[in-house]
Write a structure and sequence with these properties.
Blueprint (H helix, E strand, L loop, with lengths): L2 H17 L6 H8 L3 H5 L5 H24 L6 H19 L11 H26 L7 H22 L5 H21 L8 H13 L5 H17 L5 H18 L6 H12 L5 H9 L2
Length: 287
């Protein structure tokens, strides 16, 4: 890689982290590097291409370091998990930027984002299975969501409150809390929130560079909605109302000219039931 290309990427990473992707212009980066905008375009055809090169390069380095930790035979299982957690905390603290925040950028980046998230999910799944064994498989995706949530939030708080965070202590604390949650989940009789079939399909498609078609994703959400309603601990009359609303909603969104007002009313009706809020929210985004 040329020194100029690396300089441009370093500048872009700093601007994306500090100002955000959408607020950063190619002119900002060119000025920072002391070159003409046209010279930058000779290396990167667009800001989108620059984004993917910058982020892709950083992700590649992150996984290279993660593999070194995984291969360290001197570490116990728990110490390895703590080291992996510390590495992730350092990564998020350094990057302080996520392309998934931006909903109005071109489709090209969303394909890239899907692949990145899929690899991230797959990596965390493997970390948790290595740390706790196959006994957690039924709840692996829920545990992954809890783990990722703690990592992201703990790296955001120092920016919000302008107060430094001891990442080593945070890594130990997070792993200890994961121990507690794993024990609690294994004793619980609750069903997993994140369905394995849906999560595996999302991850596999992302790893293969394919996106989930909107129609297929919508069908899976409706199937999940119906199954969740059947398992609700509510009176049969309420369950019947929710089932009927879900069926009418499904029929309406599949029409060539659906009625937006009816769809909105049905979504709002279903959303009132707390257990359905997450699924309904995902359906709302697809309509």
């Amino acid at each position: 890689m040329s020194m100029l290309k690396q300089k441009i990427m370093d500048s872009a990473m700093r601007f994306f982290s500090e100002k955000g992707y959408m607020a950063t212009s190619i002119q900002d980066i060119a000025n920072d590097c002391g070159i003409a905008k046209g010279s930058l375009y000779k290396i990167f055809a667009s800001k989108e291409d620059l984004l993917m090169e910058v982020y892709g390069s950083r992700i590649k380095r992150m996984y290279e370091e993660a593999e070194k930790i995984k291969a360290d035979a001197t570490l116990s299982t728990k110490d390895r998990f703590i080291r992996e957690t510390l590495h992730q905390l350092q990564y998020f603290a350094e990057v302080n930027f996520s392309i998934e925040q931006y909903r109005d950028i071109p489709t090209q980046e969303f394909s890239f984002c899907h692949g990145w998230r899929a690899r991230q999910f797959d990596y965390y799944k493997d970390c948790l299975l290595t740390a706790y064994g196959r006994k957690i498989e039924p709840f692996i995706w829920d545990l992954m969501a809890l783990y990722l949530g703690m990592i992201k939030e703990y790296t955001q708080f120092p920016n919000i409150f302008n107060h430094p965070l001891n990442l080593e202590n945070a890594a130990i604390f997070i792993v200890e809390r994961m121990d507690d949650m794993v024990n609690g989940v294994l004793k619980s009789k609750l069903r997993p929130i994140l369905q394995p079939a849906v999560m595996l399909d999302y991850v596999n498609r992302g790893l293969e560079g394919a996106s989930v078609p909107a129609a297929e994703h919508k069908a899976e959400l409706f199937d999940n909605l119906v199954a969740t309603i059947k398992d609700l601990s509510v009176p049969n009359t309420r369950k019947s109302e929710l089932s009927e609303a879900a069926q009418v909603l499904r029929e309406e969104v599949e029409k060539e000219e659906p009625k937006p007002i009816l769809i909105r009313a049905l979504l709002d009706f279903l959303r009132i039931q707390p257990e359905l809020k997450n699924i309904v929210g995902q359906l709302d985004k697809l309509n």
